[in-house]
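Typical record is below.
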Amino acid sequence: MIEQDTIAQRQAAEPSQSGLGWLGYGAVLSALASALATFLILAGATPLLPTHNVVVWVFLLNGVLIALLLGIVAWQTRKLVRERRAGAAAAGLHVRIVGLFSLVAVLPAILVAAVATVTLERGLDPWFTGALKDLMTNTVAIARSYREVQCRTLARETQLMAADLNRAKVLFDADRNLFREFMNSRAVFLGFPLAMIVDTDGSVVERIDAKKLDNVPLPTETDLREASNREALCLFPKTGNIFRSALKLDAHGGRILYVAREVDPRALEFPQVAEAGVAFYEALDQKKAGIQIAFASMFTLIALIVLLSAVWFGLNFANRLVAPIRRLIHATDQVATGNFYVQVPVKRGEGDLGHLGETFNKMTSELRRQHDGLTAASDLMDRRRRFTEAVLAGVSAGVIGVNARAQITIVNPSTEALLGTSHKELLGQPITMVLPEVAPLVEEMSQGRQRLMQQQIHISRKGKERTINVRVTSEQARGGQRDLVITLDDITDLVLAQRTSAWADVARRIAHEIKNPLTPIQLSAERIRRKYGKVITTDREVFDQCTDTIVRQVDDIKRMVDEFSSFARMPKPTIGDEDLAETIRQVIFMMKIAHPEIEFDDRVPPGSLIAPFDRRLVSQAVTNIVKNATEAIAAVPEEERGQARISVLLDDTHPDYLILAVTDNGKGFPVEGRQRLLEPYMTTREGGTGLGLPIVAKILEDHGGGMELADNPTGRGGQVRMWIPKTKHVVSEETSAASSRNDSRRASL
């Protein structure tokens, strides 16, 4: 690579080392000096006059220099094309730089040439158009017309003043002073600095000097003789700028009104000026073609010299620029392939490009160091990431990562199952929207300095209530903003198992304490009734009623105690391969006979469904659930619920479980505290013991299954979903709660 760079540098330096390089500098400087001299000579700024011979010699010299520049530029362009075809390094960049310099030089020159040509043409042509020629030709007539307009204006205003003086003849005869004042006011109003009433012999009768005028001639005899009483006579001098007017006054016996007024001096001087301008304009018209040719030739020569000089400078600059860039191209290609050990040779005198090479070398050294460090760090982070993902995937508790802005960044599969939402919908969402139940805990954790906080919450998702143990921990970060890790541990089944165990112990104690005295009480009541029944003659009915009540209530207490005993001493299931479909059909058949008013929807698959379960216990559980459904229907008036319906659906499509759903249109389950109905002695039915659903839940739990309470998906009422594993499941006392919890999550599918 370094050898290739040396060759490229030698090729780029050849023009400046050969005689052609110095020839190019000399030709460019000579051409620019010749262009400047041409401009100065044609502009008349030198002692050398722009005669025909001088102009010819100047143009010949410029032509020779232009030809020399064309040859130099063509030779360098040929060399550039040859390098391009040979595929030399950075040849494409070389061509683009030269092309850019050429465009920068050519486009302004062409633009200026076009603008200058149009400007010169448009600047000269309007002065020699037909309209302007007519205007210049008629300048004298225009000046004379202006003078005539001034005369007509003066005559019209003279007639106005004469009419006023004729009407004031009576005032003239009565009071000369008052007449003089009147005449003065009219002269001032009409703008006459001088106004006189002159007799036919030339004597002045009245004279008004509103403004002093010098060298105002008096009217001659000819003027007085030519004066008329119809139109005012306009008099203008051969010299000066005072116009005069004369008009006979009919009321004053033929006397004449003589007025004078100053006008713009140009009204008299402009005709002579216009004649001189017309003569000069005609001379310019004859020289127009020569002026255009001279200016166009001068501009063309100067533009060519400047253009070729700029192109040559561009070629020379590109040659010097490409060499260090060529080295950088080779080096960057090596870096792009992953070689961070490449170094660019730096030479003195390369200026900013040399500094760029030094910076590039520093950059590659730093990149090499950082690349090695990042590679090691990336490997370590990747190993940690895979380990963390494996840990989170295997954790049964839900784990949520929250950043400083309270947005979710990490969720594990257990969180998705617990919240019933995919990770794509959870990531980036505020934790306060996804899980508002933990918002106060997150807020308190963010504002405080604690490292760990925990709390039990209750959440409800898709009609399921769960009890969650929440733990919030913060990372060890500097500053006020910290990321949080939220752990969600579903302890619903654990709490339920603890309560069930506690209630079983209570039931066992109650059954033991109550059952012992029941038999003596019952026997004593029966003996009293046999021994004293015949003796008592008064209130015999009351006596019999009381003894019957004692015996009946003792029987009721015995049945309740037996239920307590059954719940406390649930027998372990004897699991064998049984037909679950046939078992359910038998339960439905018996319930149809017992409740003919209810419409049963039997959706049990035909044939057999063999599964490992205790036929007696499962039959008892299904019977209990269907019986509860009939009682829920009976609790709602018929006019409110309509036809009583119970649907029994057995689904065998799940890969691991057989799912049984019993749906009714009765009163349904309460929204709050629904799952607590699975706890012993929790009931919403009057007279119920609260042991039916817990016994069913215990039976299913012992089989490795579970149950949940939900709303009727098609309308009013409730639904009980139960599931039993398709394979034999051995449940120990220590693992029954955890197994039931995991099974309930899977069965929710």
About this structure: Residues 1-19, 731-749 have pLDDT under 50 and may be disordered. The first helix runs from residue 2 to 17. The radius of gyration is 62 Å. Residues 19-126+282-337 form one domain.
